[in-house]
Amino acid sequence: MYINSEEAVVRLKSGKVVAIPTETVYGLAASLAHPEAIAHIFSLKGRPAANPLIIHLHSADDLMDYAESLPPEAKRLAHQFWPGPLTLILPAKTDVIPAIVRAGLPTAGFRVPSHPLARQILKETGPLVMPSANLSGKPSATSAQHVFEDFGAQLPILDGGACPQGLESTILAYQDGLWSVARLGSIPPEAFLPILGYIPAIIDLSAKTEAIICPGQHFRHYAPKAKLLCFPHQINETKFILGFRERSYPADKHVIIMGSLTNPASVAEGLYAALRQLDSQGAASAFVDMAFPSEGLWLTISERLRRAAE
Ligand code: TXA
Ligand code: MG
Questions:
Q1: Mutation test of ligand 1: which of 105, 119, 143, 168 has the most ligand atoms closer than 8 Å to its C-beta?
Q2: For residue range 196-225, what is the model confidence (pLDDT) as tens digits?
Q3: Is the CB of 171 under 6 A from ligand 1?
Q4: Pairwise CA distance, residues 283 & 130, whole Å
Q5: If you placed Cys at 113, which of 118, 201, 284, 291 could pair as Cys (CB 3.0 to 4.6 Å)?
């Protein structure tokens, strides 16, 4: 059911789960003060308990109520990128952040979203935990309609239109004296160079390290029902193509446009809608045009498509 922002605030304060828009993707929100609502998020999504949630704050000024300490440069990162699509993994005040949020870890993820509706709500409710508002494993929701598709009429949804970024926040974690990218996202790694003096490395998920830095990265993600065929599969193995506006594809194919090759932001914005469209059109499989650049936002787009094809 669709609700307005006042109703969203009332429900969140009384321990209910509500879907709200952010600049990245829609979030399934619950108040940090209501552990029973947080538990409900896990059951609604079918989310493994080992996958922690991000705490969303109205302002960076609230951070020290929840973070135990700040690694070097954390303040400058927050100052530069908040409000906005950056999540910082920080040592948590474990006495104020319920273990269910952290999946039992001594750290927590924090971000200050920039979407005006999310900000308006956070101002009234205080901190909210928000995973992406999709069933676990499916592409994230970038419109109210996507949230409705996954959760049906029972879930209260605040419709804020399409999410302008379309990809989740970039997650940075601090380890061994350096920041690294625990999840690629809306902010490309190069954007951190001026603040950090280096481009944070992307944590290699296949590396057999003992410590799991970002648990969520080890679960299946972003996947439509349709099987995605990337290179070296042949284009003629399937009828559907996920492609780009400027390219021409064989005339007998059904092409779903992800965006423009000259504008990666347009691809980011339309990516999850394109993946979801495959399912709504009943595609069993689709060829993905992966011939695009490999720097900046394209890196995140490529990672999401590869994960969706797993
Ligand atoms: O853009 C976003 O970040 C969206 C919007 C709604 O804000 N939220 C989002 O949440 O993408 P979710 O739950 O879909 O992804 C959260 C990711 C997971 O991969 C999780 O493992 C990681 O954040 N995470 C959360 N807390 C963590 C922690 N303490 N340590 C390491 N990773 C953490
Ligand atoms: Mg998610």
A1: 168
A2: 999 999 998 776 565 677 887 878 788 899
A3: yes
A4: 30
A5: 118
List the structure tokens of 230.
Answer: 């990337």
134 lines ligand 1 (CB under 6 A): no
Give the pairing type, strands 128-129 and 54-56.
antiparallel
For 282, the token pair is 């009943």
∠ CA 234-240-245 to the nearest 5 degrees?
Answer: 95
Tell me the C-alpha distance between 143 and 270, whole Å.
10
Cα of 263 to ligand 2 centre, how many Å?
24
Q: Please give the model's pTM, rounded to 2 decimal places.
A: 0.96
* Ligand 2 mean position, distance from CA 249 (Å): 32
Token readout for 57 is 């704050």
- The first and second tokens of residue 270, run together, are 């339309």
Q: Who's near 275: CB < 8 A, 6+ residues apart?
A: 139, 222, 224, 242, 308
Size of the chain in residues: 310
Report in angstroms the alpha-carbon separations of 283 from 203, 242, 305: 33, 11, 16
pLDDT of residue 258: 96
